[in-house]
Amino acid sequence: MSGKRQAASPPADEPDAKQAKGDDADAKAGADAENAGAEAGGDDPMETEENGRGDAPARRSLRTRNPVRKAATRNEGKAAKANATETKITQVTYKEGELLSDHLKADGALVEVKIPAECTVNTNQQVRSRQLWGTDVYTSDSDVVAALMHTGFWLPGSTCPPQLLELVATARAVPPAEQYLSTSRNGIRSRSWGRVLTGFSYKVEACRAITVNNQTIELTGDPERIKPCAPTFFPNVVESVVNTRASQANAERRQKLIQEVTIQYNLCNEPWLKYSVASVCDRGFKRSEWTSARLRRETLYLETHARRYELSYDGPVFDDEEENYDEVNAPEADVYRWGRCATPRDLRHTAELGVPLPKEELVDVATGVEWNEIGFDLNSVTIQGVEYKVVRLQWLPRIEPGGELHEDE
């Protein structure tokens, strides 16, 4: 028996650690190989479990993804996002006097206006003062409640319905119209206006009423919801003159007549004078103050409700003084030209073309008209026996083509 101590032999029932580790690695490799064979052969997992391999790790699905379907899903998501961006609606709360022009940023933009119930009555100052320009397409400074009334979506009364919480109107921005016409609809008459050069206009597309019980009622528009049975406005030839007590007292005290000047808007929405005989009669007894002599220095423009006419001097032009009129160099008989303007133009374009206008700008021209062939009546002008009903006039000085009209003129 030696002095060294011998190592104890492992028990018979405990396997060696290295051998156990090697056996585990062999078992794992065999399991992986069996799983790979099952995947290649398409074995059913249930069958694998029945064969005693149910404790194998879970494997991922081998079904290949459809790239076309994935791309279609991605495109649908982008399209939905784009539609959401395009249909974005700007929501504002209505306040009397505030304009929609700040919210009409682009063509086709939608603006949803929430109108409180207390603003939907006919005592609204914007409705009473008819702050509305156009028909169907309205200017950006037109009131929304007045537009709802004009289009027939809502007919305001003296009091709002007790169950009404608010109105929600949807307006769409549209390009400016060439002309905004005035029409009378549903008890309100819109105003007329010329062309708007900047910004956008709008039209009402939908309207719904929200009740206090949070119920939504869709409203439909009808421009003829109220059938007109009688004129709601006075014609242009009928006017209403209101004199204050102070002006009447002053007139009676001074025993003088009150001089009134009526301003009207011409076909280009510019202020003109109302036609009257006093505007075209002689201004004095001197020959230079006669209307016939005035036409040498100025041109008279007259308008009906739809057309514009020009009456101008058609003889040789010479510089005559107010006090010293040269009768020797004066023509034997003054002749004039009468014609209808092909297109009514504003003051700036008229000055650029020249006053009187070139012959190309006139139609139905009558030249060589003598003074005794011109007659001025209370509401009409007679030229060579033809009567023209006129409502307004304007005197313009003679301007060379390409010139400008100064404010003092």
Can you walk me through this structure?
- With 409 residues, this protein is an alpha+beta fold.
- The protein has 8 helices and 19 strands.
- The chain has helices at 17-41, 45-53, 67-86, 125-128, 144-151, 245-254, 291-297, 347-353, and strands spanning 89-93, 110-116, 134-135, 137-138, 164-174, 184-185, 188-189, 201-211, 216-219, 263-265, 271-274, 298-303, 308-313, 335-341, 362-370, 374-376, 380-383, 386-389, 392-397.
- The strands form 5 sheets. The chain has a 7-stranded antiparallel sheet. The protein has a 5-stranded mixed sheet with strand order 1-2-5-8-9, with helices on one face. A 3-stranded antiparallel sheet has the order 16-17-18, with no helix packed on it.
- β16 and β17 form a beta hairpin.
- Mean pLDDT is 77; it is low at 1-5, 36-54, 230-240 and 320-325.
List the helices and strands and how they pair.
Elements: H1 17-41, H2 45-53, H3 67-86, E1 89-93, E2 110-116, H4 125-128, E3 134-135, E4 137-138, H5 144-151, E5 164-174, E6 184-185, E7 188-189, E8 201-211, E9 216-219, H6 245-254, E10 263-265, E11 271-274, H7 291-297, E12 298-303, E13 308-313, E14 335-341, H8 347-353, E15 362-370, E16 374-376, E17 380-383, E18 386-389, E19 392-397
Parallel strand pairs: 1-2
Antiparallel strand pairs: 2-5, 3-4, 5-8, 6-7, 8-9, 10-11, 11-19, 12-13, 12-19, 13-14, 14-15, 16-17, 17-18
